[in-house]
Design goal:
The protein is an alpha+beta fold. The protein has two domains: 176 residues, Fructose-1,6-Bisphosphatase, subunit A, domain 1 (Fructose-1,6-Bisphosphatase, Chain A, domain 1, 2-Layer Sandwich); 117 residues, D-Maltodextrin-Binding Protein, domain 2 (3-Layer(aba) Sandwich). Helices cover 26% and strands 22% of the residues. The protein is built from nine helices and 17 strands. An eight-stranded mixed sheet has the order 6-5-7-8-9-10-11-12, sandwiched between helices. A five-stranded mixed sheet has the order 14-13-15-17-16, sandwiched between helices. A two-stranded antiparallel sheet has the order 1-2. Strand 11 and strand 12 form a beta hairpin. The longest helix has 22 residues. The chain binds 1,6-di-O-phosphono-beta-D-fructofuranose. 1,6-di-O-phosphono-beta-D-fructofuranose binds next to strand 15. Its EC number is 3.1.3.11.
């Protein structure tokens, strides 16, 4: 059988794209793909005309003709111009997240999963310090980056009991869940970092350190200056909003840069996917059961049967929802207002969606405790409105599930 192939010809001028010479396949032969420098071209079964139109197609340009735009270019003066302080902080956060991406993917850390190694006192029988679980390692990485940025007054982390005061002059407050979904890490399921950035409240500067650390960290979500997450998955994706649109950048491992791949994300007004831990069905209130039963059968406001997807890793479930639409939820008091619900609600709202506790808009809730937990529903506007029209969607009992 004659095979088909495309050969890159020598490049005479490095500014011009490589041209392709081709021998056409007989009709309906197998499909082959070849790297050409312009991406993978699949040629099986295509006519010469189809191929030349493929060749003529320009590469997708996300930067208005200036090449791929990186996160730091985007945030800088030629882009969103978020201000020097925030740009510096962002540079440190993205650096920390690249390190976390490397740590969670490393074969040498795989066994550290949730519980870490060694004895209860943190030591090994050999006398060395026991390795730390990956969520603690991630917390340490973020802390050290925030500290070296010089831009952070206080960091409040899901991993720490109390917020840590870093520097008096720091203009920002950072709240974070450094490694969400870490319970899945032993089996290489995606994980993520979530962060929110507030301005330091200068009017609290006169208070004792513990008090001002606490109060700065308890700001309501509608005061967020920026929020984001980093998904550690088949690709490492950093999604961020500075309060004007939600944009995602994918890590280019060849350059180490986050490159803008999803500018101005708009969550579809309707999705066809719901994301929840279905095993809790019998602990759900009637309203939530009815809602899920209805959309599953295609009997809701959108006359299509919904599909279920649940990774059990909030960042992954949220990222899919942001791109494909639908709703992602955890109806019990489990996820944290400060570290998870507020940043993700900020992102979904700036993409045209909604974040709610089943009754109220998340960003309007005033946190009263740092580690406060609540039911969380995030998603497409119309799906969220339909969900909230069922009065009773918050799971009040929380029997302490083992897995
Ligand atoms: O057990 P549930 O209710 O399905 O909760 C799963 C959720 O908990 C999380 O693992 C976060 O919980 P932790 O902060 O305790 O790890 C999310 O990533 C996930 O969406």
């Amino acid at each position: 059988m004659q095979s088909s192939f495309l050969l890159p010809t020598p490049i005479a001028n490095s500014n011009s794209p490589p041209s392709l010479s081709l021998r056409l396949p007989p009709p309906s032969t197998r499909t082959f793909s070849f790297p050409t420098g312009l991406g993978l071209f699949s040629v099986g079964g295509r006519t010469r005309r189809q191929l030349s139109s493929l060749r003529a197609k320009p590469k997708m340009d996300l930067s208005g003709g200036r090449g791929h735009r990186t996160l730091l270019e985007y945030a800088g003066k030629g882009g969103a111009d978020v201000g020097d302080d925030l740009a510096v902080l962002l540079a440190h956060i993205q650096h920390a997240c690249k390190r976390i991406a490397a740590v969670v993917a490393s074969p040498f850390n795989a066994e550290l999963g949730r519980h870490g190694g060694g004895g209860g006192d943190g030591s090994l029988s050999s006398g060395r310090d026991a390795p730390k679980p990956l969520d603690i390692v991630s917390n340490d990485i973020l802390f050290s980056s925030l500290q070296s940025s010089g831009k952070v007054a206080v960091m409040a982390s899901e991993e720490d009991d109390v917020p840590i005061w870093i520097t008096d002059g720091g203009p920002f407050v950072v709240v974070t869940d450094p490694l969400d979904g870490s319970r899945n890490i032993d089996v290489s399921i995606p994980t993520g970092t979530i962060f929110g950035i507030y301005n330091r409240l200068a009017e609290l500067d006169h208070l004792p350190v513990e008090e001002k650390a606490q109060l700065n960290s308890l700001q309501s979500g509608n005061r967020l200056v920026a929020a984001g997450y980093v998904l550690y998955s088949s690709a490492t994706v950093l999604c961020i909003s500075f309060g004007s649109g939600t944009h995602a950048f994918t890590l280019d491992r060849s350059t180490g840069e986050f490159v803008l791949t999803h500018p101005s994300i708009q969550i579809p007004r309707r999705g066809q996917i719901y994301s929840v831990n279905d095993a809790r069905y019998f602990d759900w209130p009637d309203g939530l059961r009815q809602y899920i039963d209805t959309i599953r059968q295609g009997k809701g406001q959108f006359p299509k049967k919904y599909s279920a997807r649940y990774v059990c890793s909030l960042v992954a479930d949220f990222h899919r929802t942001l791109i494909y639409g639908g709703v992602v939820m955890n109806p019990r008091d489990h996820l944290r207002l400060v570290y998870e619900a507020n940043p993700l609600s900020f992102l979904v709202e700036h993409a045209g969606g909604r974040g709610s506790d089943g009754k109220s808009r998340i960003l309007s809730i005033q946190p009263v405790e740092l580690h406060q937990r609540l039911p969380l529903f995030l998603g497409s506007l119309e799906d969220m409105q339909e969900l909230e029209s069922y009065d009773n969607v918050q799971q009040k009992i929380n029997p302490g599930y083992e897995v």
